[in-house]
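Weekly sync notes, structure subgroup
Attendees: PM, AL, DS (notes)

Item 1: joint prediction request from the bench team. They want all two components modeled as one assembly rather than separately. Inputs as received:
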Amino acid sequence: MDLSLTDEQEFLREAARGTLSRFKVIEAAHEALDGGLEKLPDLWPAAREAGWAGLLISEEHGGAGLGVFDAMLVAEETGRVLAPVPFLGLLPATAILDAAGDARCAAVAAGELRPVWIPTRPPGDLEPNWTVDGPGVARPAAPTIEGDGDAVRVTGHAAYVPDAPGADLLVVVGVDGTVAAVDAGADGVTIEQVVRYDVTRAVAHVTLDGAQGVRLAVDDGVVADAATSTSGAARSTEAVAADAATSTSGAARSTEAVAADAWYVAQALVAAETVGTVQTTLEMSVQYAKERFTFGRAIGSYQAIKHELTEVLRRLENSRSLLFYAGWARDSAPEEFALAASAARSAAGAALDFAARSNINVHGGIGATWEHDAPLYFRRAQLTRRLIGGHGDATDRVAERLLAA
Amino acid sequence: MDLNDTPEQAAYRVKVRGWLEQHKAEAPEVRSTRAGAEDAGYLQARRAWQGKLAEGGLAGVTWPHEFGGQGLGPIEQVVVNQELGRAGVPGILDVIGLGMLGPCLIAHGTDEQKTRHLGPMLHGDEVWCQMFSEPGAGSDLAAVQTRARAEDDGGFALNGQKVWTTNAHFASFGLVLARTNPDVPKHKGMTMFILPMDAPGVTVRGLRQISGEAEFNEVFMDDVRVGPEMVVGGVDNGWGTALTVLMYERLTIGLGSEGLGYNAQRFARALAADPGAVKDKAVRKAIGEIGTDLLALRFASYRTLSALSQGQIPGPESGLAKVTTVNAAIAAGDLIADVLGPDALDEDSEWSYMISFLPGLKSAGGTEQILRNTIGERVLGLPPEPRLDKAVAFSELAKLSRPGGSVSSGAEEKEGAAA
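Output from the run, pasted for the record:
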């Protein structure tokens, strides 16, 4: 057992921090909130240069061939500074493209082509307990992928898709667990950027109306038999996880398992990014609690403040511990990855909810004003909590796995 | 980053597992009910089992070879804990002795003390207890009032009262923190002593808890004579010696949450027995959150272990693991009792025992509030709580505790200047 980072991982993290430090995101975000989204810096060239698009693409397909834990280290850094960089929507798409051995992998890894992952429903047979149902109360039809052979037609809707604006290629997971690649410019594709509560995160509703695409199947050609691949929505998380468990052997990996894995990769990345955000809010709060005096004492000397901030620390450290679990499970215990990634997301989300509000509280009235930075982190907490299945779904998955064991 | 066993650890695990396979038939059952805690025959069986574990190298894993230990690291200790859990057998009985007091003797004791005491402690022949807390000195440990008066023969006479002393009713020895010099500030005038529990003048009285059982005690010392050879770590140096024990206490609690039996799977199993509960959204949300907390704890302890194996010392933040453990277990007890109904509160129920035990555990090893103060100040670097007694001689402190009381040392101004 050794949970310390390797030299390469330390370097990756430091490099990411260095790259992101060149941008004044928080200052720009204030201006963007007033309707000036164009004020936000474009981080894509820097991300491309840093090679982030190829993190999860294997070396044989032109990428860096690193693990999800490495990607999580970068995500933590993007979360620290609320970097508006297409990362969360990008990485799960690259994992699928790589598993499918898609010819575009090299271009993606080089940053010449930006894919985005279009999730549908969460994998498995859980009653959808998520909070992202699309606009209004009606749950829109999740994408279906129809057609035999490589050429398929994709129809349906995916709401609040992170990083969809500006993407070149959609990696769409159908409700049956099959996957298709669709050009963002193809007929029948509509990407509608939606008003963002958190201006630092780009989201869009994606509508597909018979759009032509190409079916993606796993590299080794052993696609799950028809019975399982078409009844994806009805399969248990256990069964999907079991597929994922065998995926490292390569022999029996199914497209459906790869699609499910991408879901949990996204959960793990949200968790890592969120931990970074919590870290920043804690630093802000602690700094202020040392400087602000009331009744003749620094407010951080009062137990009410001190105890609230140690609660932030407690939640932060618990969340961070679960990042290690998720990163380790993806590589070494894939049958636990669904549990680990869900737990990490649940803990980190709850930590940020607490930390973002606490940060405003510690700052007093000033923390609740338009000019202050604290609301930006609160907005991040509020929107993220409800993306990609939402926080509630992640917690429910932990319960599902525990109650089934 | 790798959570897997190294080849050496894997080999060690196989060895431990093999030993347990061979011997687990000799182990007493695991009991977590009031009846179990009060059964003298059961305690005897647990002592004997500790002796067997010691012979098999499964007790004192981190103790040096020369004292009968295995000379291994905390990771191997966790491997042993995990395998004990897997085999479904109890671990050592004297967790406090082997986990906290033995290591303190190893660090600060004289050669004679080590030779005389460590062997019988390891084998469960002599159980130890920790006599730190007093009715007026809990989380503010340096407020102890038990006096150790120097005698002409070089020995000391102990007078005072200790409380919350786990296992004192069957302990052979204990470590006592007592005041040797009241004329200096409270942290400076204390000394640590070894106390034979059968010494004349020692009275142990069981302290019944909410569950009805008595595993804690009050200990009264009435002119109890101890020789100079019983001093551990030097006269007036008791605070430093106590800190060593507290460091090991943090470690024991931080790494031992699973050993306490508070794990997500156990709680989920109790709920899963009720088909209605499994489908209930509120139950699922609650167990999802509790389970997440307890899973986090498991990996937090692996992080601590990694740091320790690289030579780092456990910091105060380890105390947060206890906060998480206790609060998650309290929430689980409430949830399980809500699902099972009043049957869960039946005297023979493991849940009744746990539910009754936990409110007290909240303050064990320092109350949650004091832990948060310490962590806020030492980890986050927040300004300190005002400590009005910091620079005051212990003998003057009584004046401070009266309404409107004050002392002339100007402690408050000093504190303010320091902050």
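Discussion: Residues 409-419 of chain B have pLDDT under 50 and may be disordered.
Action: AL to compare against the crosslinking data before next sync.
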